[in-house]
Structures are given as structure tokens and as C-alpha cells.
Amino acid sequence: MSSETGDAAPRGHRKLTDAKAMRAVAHPTRLALLEALGRREPLTATEAAHMVGESPTNCAFHLRTLAKYGFVEEAGGGTGRSRPWRRVHVGFSFEDPDSAGDPETTIAAAALSTVLWDSWLERIRKIAMMRSAFPDHWNKITSTAESVFYLTPEEADSFRGELTALLLRYRERLENPSLRPEGAIPMELIQFTFPAEALGPLED
After folding, report:
1. How many other CB atoms are there within 10 angstroms of residue 164's CB atom?
2. How many domains does the chain have?
3. What is the pLDDT of residue 53?
4. Full domain range(s) for residue 78
5. What confidence tens digit (pLDDT) does each residue in 3-29 have?
6. In the prediction, which pLDDT does 133 show?
7. Secondary structure (3-state) at 42
8. How many CA atoms lie within 13 A of 100 on its CB side?
9. Is residue 169 assigned to a domain?
10. Residue 34's pLDDT is what?
11. pLDDT tens for residues 92-117?
12. Antiparallel, parallel or unpaired: β 91-94 and 13-16
């Protein structure tokens, strides 16, 4: 449902279970549009085009596709490429490819996972190349870290939950710009957690 005012109900997190929706969002431009809307919304196709480096026509097409599968909606006002769009949810998650329920969903989840990993790794590489030119105040808040720690599967699951809870302290600022303190800028945390032994030789 479209929101005609700024008093819309708080948006939640979407868990993707439909293969068609997974395939729809498994596209670099569509993911870039969702990220752009996460930083500033509403956006028209023309405004989004400047942020993601695509043509307004291309962005309008992809925004309509995202709307068809419930990722974005019209924010009210405007026509054609001047229509503003907003996200329906603040983010999404989906089952890992090896745990999806049916072959079609497994294939779609694997495709989405590949696109997401490629996008995240490309951003990390880009930041690594640009960081030497960052101003000092950006360098101070840009960090990289690698850690190894021994946890049971249950502890690892709890650890992930605790990290999520920590990030959720700031979730309302994502939804409501008026809650952002002066000087607040969008920060991105890309986190990969995996069993270190997976990098070793496979056992017979």
C-alpha cells in the first residue's frame, strides 16, 4: 500500500521465501536502488539515477520491477519519472541456499547470494583502493579486523544475535531522519562469519 504522508507505520524486516521475489532483487541495479533509498528517500527515478550511475529510464524500469515484487512503493505525488518511491521494508533476509525448501527456491537463493557477495566484496575492494585519499576524520572511523575465536554452534548463533541487537540500537535513525544527531553520516558494516576450518583441505 502506498504511503501518502510521512506518518506511515514503522517498516519491518522482510524475510524472502518466494523464488520469484529472490530472482527479482538479484540484480546489481535493483540492489543499488534499494541501497540508495536506504540513504535518502523518497527518490524519483531521475534522482536515483544520479546516485546509482544509471539512466532515469533504466531506473524507472527497475523501480517498477521492485514495486511489482513488494520491495518499494510510491511515496505519493508526481507522475512518470517524477514519481517518488520509498522502500516497503528496511531490509531483507533469506534462507541460505543449502537450507531452502525446494529446488526452485534453492537456485534463486543461490543466485541472490552470489549477487550480494559480489556487491559487498566489490565495495570492500573499492574502499581499500580509495582509503589512502580519505580525510583524517574518515580514516578514523573506517576499520578492518579479522578475529578467530572458539565457539560452539549454539554460542555462535547467540553471538550473531547479540551483534544484531547492538546494531538495532540505531535502527530508528534509519527509518526516521529526524532522530539522527547532528553530524551523523551513513555507516556500512559488512560482516562475514564462518567456520575457519572451511578454508582447510576437505576431509575424506
Report:
1. 10
2. 1
3. 93
4. 13-199
5. 434 445 567 778 898 899 999 999 999
6. 93
7. coil
8. 24
9. yes
10. 94
11. 888 765 554 688 888 999 999 999 99
12. parallel
Instruction: Report how far residue 24's alpha carbon sits from residue 112's, in angstroms, rounded to the nearest whole number.
Output: 9
Residue 3 included in any domain: no
Amino acid sitting at position 179: L
Q: Distance (Å, rounded) from C-alpha 153 to C-alpha 188?
A: 26
Cell of 19: 523464488
What pLDDT shows up at residue 55? 95
> Residue 3: what pLDDT?
40
- Residue 8 in any domain: the answer is no
Q: Which three cell numbers stand for residue 115?
A: 549477487
Where the chain has pLDDT below 50, the residues are: 1-7, 100, 204
CA 14 – CA 95 distance, rounded (Å): 12
Which cell numbers hold the place of 128?
581499500
In a domain, 5, yes or no: no
Count of other CB atoms within 10 angstroms of residue 119: 15
Q: Which helix (H) or strand (E) holds 114?
A: helix 103-130
Q: What is the distance between the alpha carbons of residues 186 and 124, in angstroms, rounded to a whole number?
A: 16
Q: What type of residue is 21?
A: A
Taking a C-beta distance cutoff of 8 angstroms, is the pair 62, 29 a contact?
Answer: yes
CATH of the domain at 124: 1.10.10.10
37: Cβ contacts below 8 Å, ≥ 6 apart: 43, 48, 72, 85, 86, 87
